[in-house]
Amino acid sequence: MTQHEVEHTITVDAPAAEVYRLIAEVANWPLIFPPSVYVDQVERGATDERIRIWATANGEAKNWTSRRVLDPQAMSIRFWQEVSAPPVAEMNGTWIIEPVGAGETRLRLLHEYRAIDDRPEDLDWIEKAVDTNSRSELPSLKASVEQATRTEELTMSFSDTVRVGGAAEDVYDFINDAQLWSERLPHVVTVKLTEETPGLQVLRMDTRAKDGSTHTTESVRVCFPHRKIAYKQTTLPALMSLHTGYWLLEVAPDDASSILATSQHTVVINAANIASVLGADAGVAEAREFVRAALSANSTATLRYAKEYAESRR
Predict the structure, then answer these.
(1) Contacts of 144 (CB under 8 A, 6+ apart)
(2) What are phi and psi of 104, to 5 degrees?
(3) In angstroms, rounded to a whole number, what is the distance separating the alpha carbons of residues 31 and 36?
(4) DSSP string of 44-100, one letter each residue
(5) Which sign does the torsion angle of CA 191, 192, 195, 201 carry?
(6) What are 199-232's pLDDT values in tens digits?
(7) What is the pLDDT of residue 1?
(8) Comparing C-alpha atoms, which of 72, 89, 74 is closest to residue 24?
(9) Do 135 and 127 touch, CB atoms closer than 8 A?
(10) How far apart are CA 53 and CA 41, in angstroms?
């Protein structure tokens, strides 16, 4: 099998140390890299780690396991796929962070890959995926780092929790079986759920707002029975430029017979659309309040219906 190499480069108006930190801390990835949906840190050593990544590639949901070696002194991060998703036979590369001034950084992303059986159509698919993701990742990273060093007002995280006197398995099933939401949840108009790989879902739905309007969203969901479902929206409402979150089920610390069901959201406000959605007099504060109220209303409603479902099955 032939080894193929490719490099992508971008200049970031931010200190090299900040760029390195955001790439090194994998919890940031769904926020700064559009293809990344969820990253789970499986093992962690002093300078190396093993991570599992769920992401989109050429419009398809994929997952794989990678190892990384971090060198904070040289500001480089070497990575390679431990378990690759077909048609990839092997994928590795390096992030190289180079300061070019007091507040400017050159970021280089190197990839080396091989395709199973060297089939031309598979090589073309991998080349397109690497190029598409890299061209998406680097400008997003640039924008995210530059925004992080200038303002935090557009980003917010919050959660809502409901206590359930039922089994975690039943709450999980209600949230996992989203193909039934149009029958179970009054704010869901239509829904389509596909799950070609077990535990990796694509959820598309139309939801109705309090004013009667509807909007379409699409999310990639990563499922961990019967504990957690993490997601990232790939089709967003106008007021959001990013939305990630998770549904989390935990035994209540004060009552082992109860479950705490939590819906968590992390959102970046799309400042360019505030006036067109909320009016010329609205600002970031109004957009934050509007988005939080809308998301909390829907997620709390879902949790309450899940609670009713689980408690009825006791």
Answers:
(1) 22, 31, 32
(2) -135, 145
(3) 8
(4) E-SSEEEEEEEEEETTEEEEEEEEEEEETTTTEEEEEEEEPPTTEEEEEEEEEEEEE
(5) negative
(6) 999 999 999 877 778 889 999 999 999 999 999 9
(7) 62
(8) 72
(9) no
(10) 9
> What type of residue sits at position 33?
F
CB 240 within 8 A of CB 233: yes
Report CA-CA distances (Å) from 133 to 21, 140, 220. 20, 10, 16
Strand order in the sheet with 104-115: 4-12, 104-115, 88-101, 76-83, 60-71, 48-57, 36-44
Closest CA relative to residue 133, chosen from 194, 228, 79, 59: 59
- From the list 146, 153, 201, the residue with the least C-alpha distance to 179 is 201
> In this model, does residue 15 exceed pLDDT 70?
yes
Per the listing, tokens 């994928």 go with 91
Indicate the Cα dihedral angle 283, 15, 30, 45, nearest 10°: -150
Is the previous residue joined to 99 through a cis bond, with omega within 30 degrees of 0? no
